[in-house]
Design goal:
By secondary structure, the chain is an alpha/beta fold. The protein contains twelve helices and twelve strands. The longest helix has 18 residues. It binds alpha-D-ribofuranose.
Length: about 350
């Protein structure tokens, strides 16, 4: 027969409420000797709180949902780890949901997490339009929500991401500084705010260098290797470009493949810059110059903000946090000799 909270209360000769408050670390007003006695009896009887019963009392499940778009992309497991480590450290569990970038599945997972009574959701969306639907759900269900890695322009929710415009500027400025002026750009999905911001940084660097922006050098892809490969094939077929800036490392891997097929060597014939600095970059030859995202920290900070919202309620103002990007110079970029 499972030990219940009643058994603890009876043996400790205290009320069920006292035991519940000790379990939920809300023991202000309870004497230290009583608190210790309750904890000793919990250990002695090996009591494990029933999470459903506890949630009925505290109206909290101490569980958060985390929705990501692509578990196969090495960028996301690092993000998940940052969320999970912070959440576990603060006695919260994490339900991980992978949507494969399917907008319908995104909303299905939000509904499922609501049914599971999670205390909050951290969300990296694939469909910006779903954010509007989310607002209804979050408000009428009173669920705390933080956008991670992909924010929204109108700051309706707290969000944590890299400063994508600065990152796009850094990558492009580096190529301009080594004399490249015909720089192809393989973006993420055109409607994604983080992809739009990176492209704005690219444009700002060109403008600063008095180089006209040429829309023909911009191709949108899908943050996947095959998408990067197909876009690079198109860019390399027609344009006399000497450098390609890919908006994530997986697409940069596709650029390497297209360059090799065309008989181009990196960086002598083509300089390449990626984005994310995923750990597999080290396996590339030449090693990829890229933008470092503080991925683990972004995950940690998003969990911190969400838990603040959960524990402090609605009076926590929305926060839009940007982490600074870093350019990691390696071997895939080289000064253009005239
Ligand atoms: O690699 C996946 C990309 O999408 C990353 O650049 C990250 O910012 C995510 O939004």
């Amino acid at each position: 027969m499972a030990i219940t909270i009643k058994d603890i209360a009876r043996k400790a000769n205290v009320s069920i409420t006292t035991v519940s408050r000790v379990i939920n670390q809300k023991s202000e007003g309870i004497g230290e000797s009583t608190r210790k006695k309750v904890l000793e009896i919990i250990e002695e009887l090996e009591y494990r709180p029933n999470s459903i019963a506890r949630s009925m009392i505290t109206k909290q499940t101490k569980t958060i949902g985390l929705i990501i778009p692509d578990i196969r992309n090495p960028f996301f497991p690092e993000l998940v780890r940052g969320v999970e480590d912070f959440a576990n450290l603060h006695a919260y569990n994490v339900f991980l949901c992978n949507t494969d970038g399917d907008p319908k599945r995104e909303l299905e997972y939000v509904s499922l997490l609501k049914e599971k009574n999670v205390d909050g959701i951290i969300f990296t969306y694939s469909c910006a339009e779903n954010i509007l639907r989310l607002e209804e759900i979050v408000i009428d269900q009173n669920i705390s929500l933080v956008l991670l890695d992909r924010g929204v322009e109108d700051q309706k929710f707290s969000s944590v991401s890299i400063h994508n415009e600065s990152a796009g500027y850094l990558a492009t400025k580096h190529l301009l500084d080594i004399s490249h002026t015909k720089i192809g750009c393989i973006t993420g999905p055109a409607q994604f705010p983080n992809s739009k911001a990176r492209l704005n940084g690219y444009k700002r660097a060109l403008k600063e260098a008095a180089i006209p922006f040429n829309q023909d050098l911009i191709l949108a892809a899908d943050y996947q290797m095959d998408g990067g490969y197909l876009a690079a094939k198109t860019l390399l077929a027609e344009k006399d470009i000497t450098a390609i800036f890919a908006f994530n490392d997986l697409m940069a891997f596709g650029v390497y493949q297209a360059a090799e097929e065309k008989g181009l060597t990196i960086p002598n014939d083509l300089s390449v810059v990626g984005f994310d600095n995923i750990k597999y970059n080290q396996l590339l030859h030449p090693k990829l110059t890229t933008i470092e995202q503080s991925v683990y920290e972004m995950g940690e900070i998003s969990a911190k903000i969400l838990l603040e919202q959960i524990t402090q309620g609605g009076d926590v103002k929305n926060k839009t946090l940007y982490l600074e990007p870093t350019l990691i110079l390696r071997e895939s970029t080289k000064k253009l000799e005239n």
